[in-house]
Design goal:
mainly alpha; 365 residues; 2 domains
């Protein structure tokens, strides 16, 4: 009979740190594979109730249900992009006016520099010529980088759609694979973790959509009240960028203030900035914890760390993906002996001691 050897604390800590470092290196180096895989996993979990409805109620085959579910998701995504494109068309029609306004702002800045700092127009022109030359030298690199970025985004979307389809179609096979990685005695806990993870991810994504809609409506009403142009476009853009934690809010507030300043006055642009900041405070302290945070059940400290680590490993997609990933890690730590302390660290202070009831039979559908 084999006896287990218990290693000392420092040895276990060293092995844990080594495993974490190796995991980070693998995730970082293979992000082109893992990012679309995780996105595909999230979308397939979100589409699973729809896919099951087509199979059970409408008696579609597995292939047909998976195809229709993915096509519905593509239709919603394309419809949203089309709506944004329509708003941008109105913005593009007024672009000559914006260009004229920016030119006036630039002329005023030139006069101010000449009057206050005694920088002549000739010196400013020389500086602008040098800047333009440097921009022209890097123009080819910029165009190639933009082309590569657009190509990369297109390929990412294609792979996400492909992975989503196959995860829906082969979900029972994938479930058997995961369960057979563990012993028979541990499979019940594995089923609980899988079902809870699926429920948590569905609630998290739905919460993000609800938050985005509410923030978009509030911002649109605020923009219409103060009377700025492109209220719908700016409101939707702000809500979409708000999904990216921290970075998205500051980017959106700068864009909204610049567009408002180009169309009206500096006072109105300042009002826009203050209003968006107040909406962000209400969202981050009231709306976000109740709609999104209540579903993932993570404290803000760990959420910030997850966002920072996600950006370090996978860039901007990681800032979004690592929040549900950390939530799944919390669910696993709750059920693995010796890892309960990590679940307490990730969770909130008022953790309920009673575990939610799990419907294991959902795994068979």
């Amino acid at each position: 009979m084999m006896s287990t050897v218990k290693l000392p604390f420092y040895a276990r800590m060293a092995l844990t740190l080594l495993a974490v470092v190796l995991a980070f290196l693998i995730l970082k180096e293979a992000k082109d594979i893992f990012v679309p895989l995780v996105f595909g996993l999230l979308i397939s979990i979100l589409l699973h109730p729809i896919n099951r409805f087509f199979e059970k109620r409408l008696h579609f085959g597995r292939l047909g249900a998976a195809i229709v579910s993915v096509l519905l998701f593509i239709s919603v995504f394309v419809g949203f992009i089309y709506f944004i494109a329509l708003q941008f068309i109105g913005f593009a029609d007024d672009f000559p006016k914006l260009k004229k306004r920016f030119q006036e702002m630039f002329d005023n800045l030139q006069h101010w520099l000449s009057y206050r700092l005694h920088i002549t127009g000739r010196q400013q022109s020389d500086y602008m010529n040098r800047s333009v030359n440097s921009l022209l030298e890097s123009a080819t690199h910029t165009v190639s980088n933009v082309f590569l970025s657009l190509t990369g985004i297109l390929l990412l979307i294609i792979f996400i759609i492909i992975f989503t389809f196959f995860m829906l179609y082969h979900r029972k096979l994938l479930m058997k694979f995961v369960l057979h990685l563990f012993s028979i005695n541990s499979r019940e806990k594995v089923k609980e973790v899988i079902v809870e993870s699926k429920s948590m991810i569905n609630a998290y994504v739905l919460g993000l959509v609800i938050e985005m809609v509410v923030v978009s409506i509030v911002n649109c009403i605020f923009f219409l009240i103060i009377g700025i142009q492109y209220a719908v476009l700016l409101a939707v853009m702000t809500a979409v960028l708000n999904i990216i934690p921290y970075l998205g809010f500051y980017s959106s507030i700068v864009i909204c203030m610049l567009v408002t300043f180009a169309n009206s006055s500096g006072n109105l642009a300042l009002e826009v900035g203050i209003g968006l900041f107040i909406v962000h405070l209400l969202d981050s302290n009231i709306l976000m914890p109740r709609i999104v945070g209540a579903r993932v059940k993570m404290n803000p400290f760990i959420t910030i760390i997850a966002v920072i680590v996600g950006e370090f490993i996978w860039g901007i997609p990681g800032m979004f993906l690592f929040i549900p990933i950390t939530g799944m890690i919390k669910l696993i730590c709750e059920r693995v002996d010796g890892l309960e302390a990590w679940a307490l660290l990730i969770g909130v202070d008022d953790i309920e001691k009673t575990k939610p009831k799990i419907k294991i039979n959902e795994l068979n559908s």
